[in-house]
Write a structure and sequence with these properties.
7-stranded mixed β-sheet; Spore Coat Polysaccharide Biosynthesis Protein SpsA, Chain A; globular
């Protein structure tokens, strides 16, 4: 079992406007429970025991919130400046390698999802094969995505994901922000500020990027309007 998860929680979430003036986006509440706690709930329900969380903007608030939990003891990877997704994982790699040498989960701190048939972590782990892939991403059909949903991220071609080109306006699948990474993708990569998209594209070009089509519901709580929509849907 993959027993390690990194949660990317260093960003402010500027599109949330005033809602992140006094707190980081992962601590925005949806029906009384924070986005971050909801992600951790999924992790502990699945049995994940090793949790690494990167922090930057108002990171002390994230640390205070998570250290109050009794069900897991997170390790924090502090960033003086936000390193984006790729730089954040690379910076935290020393905390991830002891138990994640064959692959570890990474999840954004701000999406909200509802499992239907089985946990998204299980769906990813059942397909994960480090001999054949370096990155495994969870995609969701746009019709099962709610909130601040845009034109889509990926196509599936010959059972493999292909990222939408700049000239393409829409794609049928959205990236959920949930994935398994093998640490070898960072071999030779210079530390600093960079997006994981750079590594997705490299893995795609080498035939080492694969995807799971997640069968639950997914909410992108990216704006105040999306927050209200999400709360309305979940309340029903």
């Amino acid at each position: 079992m993959i027993n390690t998860l990194m949660i990317l929680a260093a960003g402010r979430g500027k599109r949330m406007l005033h809602l992140t003036d006094d707190k980081p986006k992962p601590l925005v509440s949806v029906l009384g429970r924070t986005l971050l706690d909801r992600v951790v709930d999924h992790a502990t329900d699945y049995g994940i025991q090793n949790l690494v969380v990167n922090t930057c903007y108002k990171g002390e608030m994230i640390e205070e919130a998570l250290t109050k939990r009794q069900d897991i003891k997170p390790v924090f990877s502090r960033e003086e400046e936000a390193l984006e997704t790729g730089g954040g994982v690379l910076n935290a790699l020393p905390y991830l390698l002891p138990s994640g040498k064959d692959g570890f989960f990474v999840a954004n701190a701000d999406p909200l999802w509802v499992d239907r048939t089985s946990p998204v972590f299980k769906q990813l782990e059942q397909k994960w094969d480090p001999e054949k892939m370096d990155i495994l991403i969870a995609l969701i059909p746009k019709e099962h995505a709610f909130g601040a949903v845009h034109g889509g991220d990926y196509f599936m071609e010959s059972s493999l994901p292909r990222r939408k080109h700049k000239e393409e306006t829409t794609a049928p699948y959205l990236f959920t922000g949930i994935q398994i990474l093998h640490p070898r993708i960072f071999n030779g990569v210079t530390p600093g500020v960079f997006s994981l998209v750079k590594l997705y594209d490299k893995a795609q070009n080498e035939g080492r990027l694969q995807a799971v089509i997640y069968d639950g519901d997914w909410y992108h709580v990216g704006t105040p309007e999306a927050l209200k929509q999400t709360e309305d849907i979940l309340a029903r």
